[in-house]
Amino acid sequence: MHIPDGFLNVRTWAAAWVLSGCAIGYCVKKTTRLLKERMIPLMGVMSAFIFSAQMFNFPVIAGTSGHLLGGVLAAVLLGPYPAAICLTCVLIVQCLIFQDGGITALGANILNMSFVGTLGGYSIYCIIRKFIKGRKAIVIGAGVAGWVSVVLSAMACAIELGISGTAPFKAVFFAMSGIHAVIGAVEAIITGLIVSFVLKVRPDLVYNSECV
Prior knowledge:
By secondary structure, the protein is mainly α. The chain has a single domain, classed as Arp2/3 complex 21 kDa subunit ARPC3. The protein is built from seven helices and two strands; from the N terminus they run ααββααααα. It has helices spanning 10-34, 39-54, 71-78, 80-98, 106-131, 135-163, 169-201; strands at residues 58-59, 65-66. Strands 1-2 form a two-stranded antiparallel sheet. Helix 3 crosses helix 5 (106-131) and helix 6 (135-163) packs antiparallel against helix 7 (169-201). The mean pLDDT is 89.
């Protein structure tokens, strides 16, 4: 899902940089207001965990592979805005040090995974929690939202590639959506298991503020 350099035309990656920049500024502003003493070290630990988890790829189908996205997991524990910042930091390090995704396409990768995926998935998590109560809602909501976050990120990526003329829109959209629907199922299981474990040992670490 990390788009390399040369896959997006100038208008697309430039627009993605602008949108990502605005979104980062907004999330930093919101995080500063919500910042609590325990959140700072937890953001660091979560960023390190996501970075490490994304290094492990698992086979999917037709020679493709996937890895944990982790945006919804971070949002459930930290809240949506700190989670988006954590994922953004991870993507920047991956790009600049490990060449995972291009520099010109970094804005698009941040937009797709940190904001479309993380904040979009967290919205689904909040909706589920309104209809299901208790700890079950947190685990189910996190799992379903984890799946949605992966699919939404893949769709956003496919749209950008289609707009740039890299590949026929219908072909890339359905290919990306289909493969990442499978990857999202693994994301859902891992996210649900981790959240369930945290609820058992440290329920205070789960972000309990209103879904805003």
